[in-house]
Amino acid sequence: MARVVILDYGSGNLRSAERALQRAGADVEVTADHRAAVEAQGLVVPGVGAFAACMDGLLGVGGDKIIDQRLAGDRPVLGICVGMQVLFDQGVEHGVRADGCGQWPGTVERLNADVLPHMGWNTVQAPTDSVLFAGLDPETRFYFVHSFAVRKWELESSDSITPPRVTWAEHGEPFVAGVENGALMATQFHPEKSGDAGARLLRNWLDVL
């Protein structure tokens, strides 16, 4: 049974994520303890609300340093919703620009869509070699709740580095719905609220721990 820490930094649907991961077969602890978060087999970074507020909470518990330490040791991290967004360089919401963790270049911005928030079930376009979406039908739907997203993937390709697998979805325009970048993975949607599809995705993640 994989040992997973859900990082408690004052943001996120912690109990739903905890229950979903337990059902998927993980031994789960919800904590802000630095040592536990660094040493667990897997770390989940949730997030609900405004980008800047989530970053303030994350910095308050040293979450950026925890993520850096884990990735330096090739230890898996999974970001969910705003927990994915804060992995990028910056977010711009309601005129407020805030720095993110900078694991990936890119800016979280308001979606160009007639109806916001983007709330409900939507399909995604995952790469054929995806780990997270392995075994899932291309028409599978996942549950989204957000008005802001990364609208452009800015990490340039390199012959010396394996490019990340990027999953896309569309609501008014295309946006990044998931990223798989070695030990660092993330989804814009909520797998813990996505029923059987989300449970399969979480099991796929647990299988790499």
UniProtKB/TrEMBL annotation:
InterPro entries, per database record: Class_I_gatase-like (IPR029062), GATASE (IPR017926), Imidazole-glycPsynth_HisH (IPR010139)
Coiled coil regions in record: none
SUPFAM superfamilies (alphabetical): Class I glutamine amidotransferase-like
The entry's keywords: Amino-acid biosynthesis, Cytoplasm, Glutamine amidotransferase, Histidine biosynthesis, Hydrolase, Lyase
Domain Glutamine amidotransferase, first and last residues per copy: 5-205
Name under which the protein is recorded: Imidazole glycerol phosphate synthase subunit HisH
Task of the protein: IGPS catalyzes the conversion of PRFAR and glutamine to IGP, AICAR and glutamate. The HisH subunit catalyzes the hydrolysis of glutamine to glutamate and ammonia as part of the synthesis of IGP and AICAR. The resulting ammonia molecule is channeled to the active site of HisF.
Key word DNA-binding present: no
Pathway info: Amino-acid biosynthesis; L-histidine biosynthesis; L-histidine from 5-phospho-alpha-D-ribose 1-diphosphate: step 5/9
CDD domains from the UniProt entry: GATase1_IGP_Synthase
